[in-house]
Every structure is written in structure tokens, then in C-alpha cells.
Amino acid sequence: MRIARFAARRLLQAVPVLLGVIVVTFVLVRVLPGDPIRTILGPNATEADAAAARARYGLDQPLWRQFLDYVGGLFSGDLGTSIQSGASVASEMAVRVGPTMELVVLAVVIATLLATVLGIWSARRAGRAGDHTLRVLALVGNSLPEFWLGLVLILLAYSVLGWVPAPSGRVDPDTDLTLITGADLLDAALTGNGPAFASAAGHLVLPVLTMVVVIVAPLLRSVRASALEVLGSEAYQAAAAHGLSERTLLRGYLTRAALVRLPALAALVFGFAIGSTVLVEYVFSWQGFGQWALRGLLYRDYPVVQASVVVIALCYTLIFLIADVVHAVLDPRVRI
Amino acid sequence: MADLTTAADAGPPRAAADRRFATTLIRAGSALLGLVAFAVLVGPLLVRWGPEEIDPAASLAPPGGAHPLGTDVNGMDILSRVLHAGRLDLGVAIASVALAVVLGTALGLLAGYRGGRVDDVLMRVLDVFQAFPAFILALAVAALLGGGAGNLVLVVALVNAPAYARLVRAEVRTVRELPFVEASRTAGASGLGTLWRHVLPNSLTPVRVIAPLNCGWAMLTLAGLSFLGLGVTVPAAEWGAMISLGTGDVVAGRWWTSVPPGLFLLVSVLGFSLLGEGLQERAGVVR
């Protein structure tokens, strides 16, 4: 019950921030230079053509009117019509979210597991060579530009060794995969399509590896720092002095306590991964949400920019909220 | 407690080892940065080709002969471009972080020292800016403002300033309650004088630790934006833009157009990371 009330309070705090995001995005795309209409009309269009096109997308209305229409649409689930493609923004986005979430979720989950195991390992050897080596390696990973790492991996694993499929697309089209969620690996598993599953997994290896290498360092640092705190605590030392087995110490005392700070950080890393995915998708021609939003930005496609920015802010805020709730579950002190 | 302490636990021996490790990190980071700085300051004076000079006889020439690191698709010398690009990348990164520190510190001082309504409004505005992943915000602002080195400094500074404002605000709220601040006010110093002389210098510790790490992030952001075509564009020499131009070559197995600029970028960012990590370790900051 307590937890539910805590979650509700956090949810209420997020509302003004999201309203702020909606207003700022709406105003910024219109105030800053760039005209979405000129990009679809071509060089020979007259002023009258432009005015007609503007009227078609409601851009001839006063700003307050456009804003009311936009917000009214948001509440009825209508994200508007893309100026570039003329298709519904919501349906375009639905196709793009799955592939990107597949990438981000896999990378964050693998990185978190890796960071937990390695962080505790590193803390128990604190100050020794293994610990130092691991920390420096994590820093190197964190300093790698993800778009370059992706290219180097393509160079080695595809161009030189030929171990993975060419970096274009997410699954071999010959496997006749039926799309359900848009996340190819999941869809292949749901439809029991073995060849598609193998192909999707093959396409995922390099982009996921790229992201894991880049995001694992901050998680690792956090787990290590928390684990060190536990190792130095009187409770742990007393437990160790009473001769509890290694296994009990590790499971009962170290792991849970060391993970307390991880949720908030995982949320932050999730956000970082969403940013990274724009670059990684570009390198691997992933055709996901990031590439779609980027195209929208480049062509000043107002409805696409507004929808993608607001959706990212919404996801980011929700992830932090979930992280806070998980933190509250792990650490009762937070709930007070 | 002392008799329970074992070699694996926290204690004086490890604290000494930690300090040594921190010093090693700081030295290694400084050395890498020194190396890169030397290469990009002196290197361009020694190369034969200009950064945007086209060798019509050589397009995509492999390394060797007249072009030690080969040429790109335009017939421009990779070595010369990589070295020249460093000046731009390092310059923009450092300038943007400096601007972010100044901007963020000013906001943080104002919010933390005045408190009340001013603080509330400023913090809510920062909330909106921090509702996005940093790179997404940079991407959106860069796409809307347009590219170019000057705009990039502004973009990266705007994206980073809120974090500094928060850091400084938190410090100021602690520092303003300390006895020496009260003493300064009782002694008749003006509000601004107290702020400048006593509060500001004592609120900058976390900023000094975070700034180097931030320089590394700024370099990655800058190169990332250019890679996507939103920052500096070819023919100007910039590491991200060079890597972008080499994207197609990689699938064909031509490594020399994109690997060298990436290596330079990696070494510079790693230098900042090592330096920042060492400073954090020494200051005992846990993030």
C-alpha cells in the first residue's frame, strides 16, 4: 500500500514536467528557422502552392489554435499526420518502436547483469590488479564513440571474418517473418519461426554488443562502490566473523545490498542508450525509432518531431519513476 | 572493530592503494591528453598536404607513399585531416564545457543563494530540460539551430549547464549556512561580495571533478552530431564527419578512412575519462 502511494505521488510530480515538455517542443519547432512545407514542395512551387499546403496541415492557423488542436489530439490518441509521408504519425511510430526497444532493452539487461557480476567480483578484489584492470577496461569502453565501435566491429566481423550478416536491416527477408510487435527476435519466437529467429539474432549481435560495451562502465562503477560499502560495514564483517559460508555471504548479504543504487542508474543508462541508439541505428541501418525521429528533425516534420520528443520524454520520465519505485522496494528507508 | 579487519576490508592499507591508483589514473590521463595536444598542435606543421587539399591523382589510396594514412573518397590526405581536426574537436569541447560551467554556476548560485520563488521556478525549468536523455536534447537543438562549430559550442553548453546548476545549487545551500558566511554578512559585506568571496569558491569542488569527464562527453557528442550530419560537415576536417564519410568504405574492407579519426577521438576521450576518474577517486565522490 505504502509503495502504491509513493508511486502515485511520484506520478503526480511528473505531470507538470511533461506539460512543460509539450509546450516547449511545440514552440521551439515553430520558432526556430526551417520550413517543413518547402521541403515537400520542391523548387518550382509558387507562393500559392505553399499557402495551400500550409492550409492542408493547419499551419495557417494562429499558434494558439494549432496548440489547442495538437493537445486535443494528444488526449484522444491522435498524434497528427506526417508532413513528409502524409501517413498517420501514430501508425508510423508503432512500426518503429519495436526494433529500437529490442535493441535498447537487450543492451541494458545484458549490461546490468554483466555489471552486477563483474562489480561484485571487482569489489572483493579491491585495490588488486584484477580490480584495476577491469576498471580501466570499463573506462576504455565508456570512452569509445559508439558509431565508430560499430564500424570497427563491422569491419572485423563482417568484412574481414564474415561471421555476421551485412549491416543492413534486421532480419533476412527470405525467412517470411510475420510481424506482431516489431521486435524481430520476439516475433520469431512467438510465431515459432526458427530460421527468422537465427537471422534476427545474427543481425542483433553487433549492435547490441556495441551498446553494451559503451554503457557497462557507469553500472559497473556503481555496483562496485555499493559492494565496497557493504564489505566495510559492521553487519557484513560480523556475519563473516561468525563463519557463514561464502555462498550465504554473497547471496544474503552482498548482492541485494550492492544493488540498491542500481535502479536509478539503470534508468539513467537507459536514457543514455536511447540517445546512443540514434547513432547505432544509423550505422547498422536499423530503421527504428531513432532514424525515424532523426529524419523528422532534419525535415522539420512538426508532428513527427513533436510526437517523438514527447514520447521519449514520457518514456524517460516513466523509467525514472519505475526506478524510484524499485529502489523503494529494495531500500525501505526511501519510503518515509 | 579493528580486530575484525582483514586484508580484503576497507582500511588504511587500501586507502593508500586507492590514492596510488588515483594518482596513476590522473598521470595516465594527463599523458594521453598531452600526447594528443602535442600531435594536433605540432603535427599540422609537419604534414605535406593541407586538410582540404585534393590530390586529383589519388582517391581512396591505401596508406603508404605520398599519403602515410591514405586518402578519402575526395582524395584528401587522412593524416593531415586527422591532425587538423583535433584542433577543432578539442577546442569546441573545452569551450563548450567552459561555457556550461559559467552558465550553470551562475544559475546554481542564484537558485541556491536566493532560494524561495526564484529557486522554484529555475528548478522547474531545469526539470523540463532534463526530461530528455542528454544526447537527444543535443540532437534536437542542433537540428533546429543548424550546424557549424559556433552553434555546437552553444548546443553542448546548453545541454550540460543544468547539471552544473544542480551541483552548484546543492553546494551553495550547504555553504550559505556555514558560520563564515554569517560572519561575512554580520561584518557588513554586501550580499554580492559575500557570494563572490566566500560562497562561490567553496561551492566549486564537485564542478572541478566533473568538468574533465564532461569534456570527454562533449567530444563524443560533438563527433556524434557531426557523424549524423548535424554538426561540422565535410570538407571541414572534424573526426566525426571523417568517420561518417568512411562509413561506406568499411563494408568494402577499407579501414583507413574511418579508423584513424576514431582512434584519435578514443584516445582524447579516454584521457579525459582517466583524469576525471582519478580526480573522483581522490575526492571520494561516489556517483
Automatic annotation (TrEMBL), chain A:
Annotated compartments: Cell membrane
One annotated Gene Ontology cellular component of this protein: plasma membrane
Stored InterPro entries: BPD_transp_1_N, MetI-like, MetI-like_sf
Gene Ontology terms, MF aspect: dipeptide transmembrane transporter activity
Membrane topology value: Multi-pass membrane protein
Principal place of residence: membrane
Keyword Nucleus: no
Pfam families in UniProt: BPD_transp_1, BPD_transp_1_N
The organism's place on the tree of life at top rank: Bacteria
Keyword annotations from UniProtKB, A to Z: Cell membrane, Membrane, Transmembrane, Transmembrane helix, Transport
Membrane spanning residue stretches: 12-32, 103-123, 144-164, 200-220, 259-284, 304-330
Domain ABC transmembrane type-1 intervals: 97-323
Family named by the database record: Belongs to the binding-protein-dependent transport system permease family.
Protein name: Peptide/nickel transport system permease protein
From TrEMBL, chain B:
SUPFAM superfamilies associated with the record: MetI-like (SSF161098)
Name of the protein described by the UniProt record: Peptide/nickel transport system permease protein
Predominant localisation class: membrane
PROSITE patterns: ABC_TM1 (PS50928)
Organism taxonomic ancestry: Bacteria, Bacillati, Actinomycetota, Actinomycetes, Streptosporangiales
Keyword Cell division set for record: no
Keywords tagged on the record: Cell membrane, Membrane, Transmembrane, Transmembrane helix, Transport
Cellular compartment(s): Cell membrane
Topological type in the membrane: Multi-pass membrane protein
Pfam families in UniProt: BPD_transp_1 (PF00528)
Membrane-spanning ranges: 24-47, 90-113, 125-145, 217-235, 255-275
GO aspect biological process, one term: transmembrane transport
Annotated Gene Ontology cellular component terms: plasma membrane
Superkingdom as given in the UniProt entry: Bacteria
Protein family according to the UniProt entry: Belongs to the binding-protein-dependent transport system permease family.
InterPro entries assigned: BP-dependent_transpt_permease (IPR050366), MetI-like (IPR000515), MetI-like_sf (IPR035906)
Domain ABC transmembrane type-1: 86-276
Keyword Oxidoreductase applies: no
Gene3D superfamilies per UniProt: MetI-like (1.10.3720.10)
